[in-house]
Amino acid sequence: MGKHVALVTGAARGIGKAISIEIAKRGIIVGIGYNRDTNKALEVKDEILRNGGEAEIFQGSVENFYDVKHVVEALVEKYGKIDILINNAGITHDKTVIKMSLEEWIRVIQVNLFGSFYCIKASLDYMMANGWGRIINISSIIAASGNIGQSNYAASKAGVIGLTKSLALELAQKNITVNAVAPGFIETEMVAKVPPEALDKVRSKIPMKRLGKAEEVARVVSFLLDENSDYITGQVYHINGGLYM
Ligand code: CAA
Fold first, then answer.
1. pLDDT number for residue 2
2. Residues 3/27, Cβ–Cβ less than 8 Å
3. CB contact burial 102-137 (16+ within 10 A = b; e otherwise)
4. What is the DSSP letter of 228?
5. How far apart are CA 39 and CA 197, in angstroms?
6. HEC profile for 119-154?
7. DSSP three-state, residue 185
8. How many CB atoms lie within 10 A of CB 27?
9. pTM value?
10. Is 225 helix (H, G, I), strand (E, B) or coil?
């Protein structure tokens, strides 16, 4: 079958970066999808190349279907296929509903949920033609637990779980598995933006009393991508130190 080729969105930093580096170590060719920060994306590429892996950066906004199509086509043109998609790109705009603007509601759902759908839509024909595929959607603990100030994010990430299960059913006989990974509070720039008092409160409630590491999420993603994981589909893997069970 040759080497697998993955697109990881939001791969310039945080969980997407950790996933890219981890799966490249397993011999997967990585398309580093990113929106703004070319330097950070190039740093991820350099690290992968230094480790002996193969990777290229691809710029585009997951909010825009034509950007996404362009990225997927460029990846396929360079490497001949796409058979792994990691929908990781995501944003927050935390506000209680009473204060949240319509734009903040729309934008978070546009990026997190529509963006995941757009990437799936743009890559599915290639995966079907290839006869093997893996789709991992990054959801969140917040999809299951809810959180003050995160109605838009929670709705988007719960939507990602519904999308995952429906698509898993549609593709169950096509040799393409679809799973979601739901991280808890992980040491990333996204979590660093949470007000310190709010984060202290969260930390005190985590049974393991610490935030998670991006690498701890990346290892679960890597496990799900393995060819031996092909009987696992439609599942949601929570990685949260016991904060939500
Ligand atoms: N617990 C209890 N009550 C809270 C609260 C909290 N954590 N935060 C706010 N409230 C209450 C306030 O007391 C206030 O009530 P009163 O009016 O009765 O006093 C009301 O909610 C409104 O408070 P604010 O005016 O401060 O609300 P705001 O609209 O400005 O929002 C906030 C504040 C955005 C919620 C802010 O507290 C915050 O950022 N909290 C952290 C949110 C969070 O955990 N985000 C996680 C980001 S990381 C991530 O998303 C990754 C992942 O997947 C886990």
1. 86
2. yes
3. eebbebbbbbbbbbbbbbbebbbebbeebebbbbbb
4. G
5. 32
6. HHHHHHHHHHHHCCEEEEEECCHHHHHCCCCCHHHH
7. coil
8. 11
9. 0.96
10. helix
Regarding the beta carbon of 151 and ligand 1, being less than 6 Å apart is answered no
Q: Percent helix, strand, coil in the chain (nearest 5)? A: 50, 15, 35
pLDDT of residue 1 exceeding 80, the answer is no
Residue-range domains of the chain with CATH: 5-239 (3.40.50.720)
Give the closest residue (by CA) to ligand 1 atom 9.
Answer: 148
pLDDT, tens digit, 9 for 90 and up, residues 137-180: 999 999 999 999 999 999 999 999 999 999 999 999 999 999 99
- Candidate of 13, 15, 92, 94 to mutate for ligand 1, largest count of ligand atoms within 8 Å of Cβ: 94
Contacts of 200 (CB under 8 A, 6+ apart): none
Question: Under 8 Å CB-to-CB from 56, ≥6 apart: which residues?
Answer: 30, 31, 32, 45, 75, 78
- pLDDT tens digits, one per residue of 59-91: 999 999 999 999 999 999 999 999 999 999 999
* 147 Cα to the center of ligand 1, angstroms: 8
Tokens 């006869």, residue located: 131
What is the C-alpha separation between 44 and 58, in angstroms, rounded?
Answer: 12
Structure tokens that stand for 101 in this block: 């603007």
